[in-house]
Amino acid sequence: MSERTGWDRGLSVTADGKGLVGHAGAVLLRKLADRIGLTRGLAGVLPTSTAVGWRERAAVLVQLAVAIVLGARSLLEAEQLQLHHQGLFGPTVSDSTTRRVLAGLDEQTLTRIAKVRRRVRRHVWTLLHLRPGGFPCLTVAGRALKGWIVVDLDATVITTASRKEGAAGTFKGTFGFHPLAGWCANTGESLAMELRPGNAGANTVEDHLRVLAACLEQIPRSSQSKLLIRV
What we know:
This protein has two domains: 7-103, no CATH class; 135-230, no CATH class. The chain is built from eight helices and nine strands. It has helices at residues 26-35, 38-43, 57-69, 75-84, 86-89, 95-103, 107-129, 205-218; strands at 138-140, 143-145, 148-155, 158-159, 168-169, 175-177, 180-184, 189-194, 226-230. 20% of the residues are buried.
């Protein structure tokens, strides 16, 4: 995929072996975020500036998400991936800039981001309902749950090799983190996630209720929906 044609100006496939960029499919993720209004929505709730060299915070977060999808496990790896993709997305964002963006996400800002995600998800789910096949439905225990929304809650141990913030011993005898996440099984979307230390319990009821409440906030018209919660 030639890097000589910018991603926002259309892409062309060449066979000359020059200016090649791996993971060109990442363009689809970035353009999707832009088309559905996620990037614009984030820009409305994050700090902005006209200073020279300022990197728009919304674009930084979206590009970080793309890097994570491609396998980045640290801010340094995210920077290296963006360096590889600069022919598609423009100048890379340093790991220190990304760290400053993340450090500025206080509880108030995270709440505003959650509202943006909910608004964008409502728009996307409306489009899914309008498809010929309608909104995706699942088959559970041999029964097709048409019209049901299935939410999966699961805690997963993530190991780390160093004493990072919040890392601790886990019940599996490893060292790292134990986040609890909620997913929409119909679409594969991450609805909510709580970052927890490694020694957090696998079956802590308070944590499950808190994450479930955050998931329900993300589901359009959740109070009117038929819901199946799997834990």
